[in-house]
Write a structure and sequence with these properties.
- This protein has 343 residues and is of the alpha/beta class.
- The protein is 34% helix and 14% strand.
- It contains ten helices and eleven strands.
- The chain has helices at 36-49, 64-73, 102-116, 135-147, 161-168, 200-206, 246-266, 270-279, 294-301, 310-319; strands at residues 9-12, 15-18, 21-23, 53-55, 81-86, 88-90, 96-98, 121-126, 151-157, 175-179, 210-214.
- A seven-stranded parallel β-sheet has the order 3-4-5-8-9-10-11. Strands 1-2 form a two-stranded antiparallel ribbon.
- InterPro entries: Aldo-Keto_reductase, NAD(P)_OxRdtase_dom_sf, NADP_OxRdtase_dom.
């Protein structure tokens, strides 16, 4: 499916999408309460702006997010490149389990199609690689969905370099969704995932796999809107993350100050500069900043017009290298990482 949008398009392993996508998770969980009406209005506004690459998952809100997205795109399906994911589910104690068994692939896909109200999913990801199930078996079952016309393209999320190599031997992988931003540079670090000195980014590009960075705004931190841990409500999951706590929080604010300074020089907001940096990493990179509000969506879309010079990029790289941020990405308790070596 291809379309021409005001934002322009990029290609993820054969799937043409808008240059910028929209992460829909926050409309159902993790970032405090959300208004259903405003969430649907945000998706409609995204399509009007040419942000037509929508990202969801069956685990977001335990199915609620797929239902919400399905409702929002009803009547406009042909405008949308629709991505969803499977393999994660919540346990009774609030943790996560991974299930990459072939039989689960089929069950989850059928359920997602029903909730979304569509006949085909444009991009279907394994949300986390199941270390107990050979990835060849999981991807083989996903490939059957392509053969059946229920899925157009396959993706992996937070997979290691070694898993990418094994997956593409079974079926082409269009996209890798992983966290990548000015404060999360793990994709660029060599030696991850049992692939020797290779980077995950390098292996993906070796096989023509597009990159879909989630949390390209550092979970909102790089916008400059978060200045104290008190900014998080009780139902905001960020308050439990090491990067947002204690000394790490204060140290990481210095990175935001540097981003804010350059953004002011470019006539942009800090968030727009952070998104522009991600998009500048290659024509095969399509970030999916998440928001549940039209105002933030419109701000994010403005990042596509910002051009960063080689000097700008060098300046940002000097400030925000792989070791610049304090604290791990996730708390250890209750989180399932799959086979990705990064935390």
């Amino acid at each position: 499916m291809t379309s021409t949008t005001p934002l322009g398009t990029r290609t993820l392993g054969g799937l043409t999408v808008s240059t910028l996508g929209l992460g829909c998770m926050g409309m159902s969980q993790s970032y405090g309460t959300a208004s259903r009406g405003e969430s649907i209005a945000t998706i409609h506004r995204a399509l009007d702006l040419g942000v037509t690459f929508l990202d969801t998952s069956d685990v977001y809100g335990d199915g609620h997010n797929e239902q919400l997205v399905g409702e929002a795109i009803a009547g406009r399906r042909d405008e949308v490149q629709l991505a969803t994911k499977f393999s994660l589910s919540r346990t009774a104690d609030g943790g996560m389990r991974i299930d990459g068994r072939p039989e689960n692939v089929r069950v989850c896909a059928e359920a997602s199609l029903r909730r979304l109200g569509v006949d085909v999913i444009d991009l279907y990801y394994q949300h986390r690689v199941d270390p107990r199930v050979p990835i060849e078996d999981t991807v083989g079952a996903m490939a059957e969905l392509v053969e059946q016309g229920k899925v157009r393209h396959l993706g992996l999320s937070e997979a290691s370099a070694a898993s990418l190599r094994r997956a593409v031997a079974v079926h082409p992988i269009a996209a890798l969704q992983s966290e990548w931003s000015l404060w999360t540079r793990d994709l660029e670090v060599a030696g991850g995932g049992g692939a020797g000195g290779d980077t995950v980014l390098g292996v993906a590009r070796e096989h023509g796999i597009g990159i879909v960075p989630f949390s390209p705004l550092g979970r909102g931190f790089l916008t400059g809107a978060i200045t104290t841990p008190d900014d998080f409500g009780d139902d905001d999951f960020r308050k439990d993350h090491p990067r947002f706590q204690g000394e790490a929080f204060q140290a990481n604010l210095r990175l935001v100050d540097a981003v804010r300074e350059l953004a002011a020089e470019k006539g942009a907001t800090p968030g727009q500069l952070a998104l522009a940096w991600v998009m500048a990493q290659g024509a095969d990179v399509v970030p999916i900043p998440g928001t549940k509000r039209r105002s933030y969506l419109e701000e994010n879309a403005g990042a596509a017009a910002i051009e960063l010079t080689a000097d700008d990029l060098a300046r940002l790289d000097a400030i925000t290298g792989p070791d610049a941020v304090l604290g791990t990405r996730y708390p250890d308790a209750g989180y399932t990482y799959g086979d990705s070596p990064e935390r």
